[in-house]
Amino acid sequence: MPGIATPPGALVAIGGAEDKSSRADILREVISLSAARSPVIGVITTASSIPDDVFAAYHDVFLAIGASEVLDVRVREREDAQDPAFIEMIRRSDVIFISGGDQMRLTSIFGGSLALREIRQRRMDGAVVAGTSAGAACQAATMIYGGPADDSLRKGAVKMSAGFGFVEGVIIDTHFLERGRFSRLMEVGTTNPEYVGVGLGEDAAVLFQGDRLRAFGPGHVVLVDSSRITGSNVFDLNDGEAVSVQNVIMHALVDGYGYSLSDRRVLTPDDLRAESPELLIADT
Fold first, then answer.
1. Residue 77 and residue 5: Cα distance in Å, rounded?
2. Is 55 helix (H, G, I), strand (E, B) or coil?
3. What counts of helices (H) and strands (E) characterise the chain?
4. pTM for this one?
5. Angle at which helices 114-124 and 103-110 pack, to 10 degrees?
6. Domains in the chain, start-ordered, CATH in brackets?
């Protein structure tokens, strides 16, 4: 069954460019998912080429909206991901927040490390794990790391590699509407129809819980379901040739709507209240 084996800690993926003003809807909801009243936030800026600026922005907004402390988990090289000082920061964090940038940098530095093992353990202990842009794309077991937005419906155009595996059965793409990345998830779906494509718009997020997800934030979440495609020429093509595919299903979700990964079904706010009250934890 798609989804995750539901550790106690929440998992949140954000499409990027989330509001960091005093309103900060998405970041407030991330904090509200923590069991701690004034949580310690560990910010991982590994993916970014400007970590000082990125950390400063999150430091200020998280303190303003209720964090008791914001830790700079400054992992820049593989040896840093083994450093006891950074491991202890992760261990102290009630919310672990992974910033945007280059997702391949994230996976190449954290893959197989003590730091990644500790992140997984903290989530098992109940900590929230959240990421934006690259920090969201890396959460799936298989992640997109490249492919042109304007011409990805060509065999092999979308580049994929192993992600962190926090959630199974999905492929996550970010900045989805703003950068016109529909064709990326359609190309992925022709060869991997078992995956649900989760296209996160900017200032939009999803909370994963078991085999279900809930959209929140001001933006849109687009789901691409290729499980019912009726035909494609992809198997007859050479790399770079144009792909044809029929009967791809898409859904656009907004705040309060959800989706069942196991039976590919959109869940209205009423459905969520009746069937998945755990996904409404941040609204209580």
1. 30
2. helix
3. 8, 17
4. 0.96
5. 100
6. 7-138 (3.40.50.880), 145-284 (3.40.50.880)
Residue whose C-alpha is closest to residue 91's, from 45, 138, 55, 40:
40
Which residue intervals of 201-254 are DSSP H helices? none
45's CB contacts (< 8 A; 6+ apart) are 51, 54, 55, 72, 73, 74, 99, 101
- C-alpha distances (whole Å) from 187 to each of 26, 160, 177, 221, 276 are 29, 11, 16, 18, 31
Res 82: pLDDT: 98
Q: How far apart are CA 8 and CA 121, in angstroms?
A: 10
Structure tokens at 170: 């999905």
Categorize the per-residue pLDDT at 7 as very low, low, confident or very high, splitting at 50, 70 and 90.
confident
User: Residue 278: what pLDDT?
Assistant: 86
Tell me: pLDDT of 86 over 60: yes
Burial 265-278 (b: 16+ CB within 10 A, else e): eebeeebbeeebee
Looking at the DSSP bridge assignments, the partners of residue 162 are 142
Determine the average pLDDT of the residues in 120-148. Answer: 97
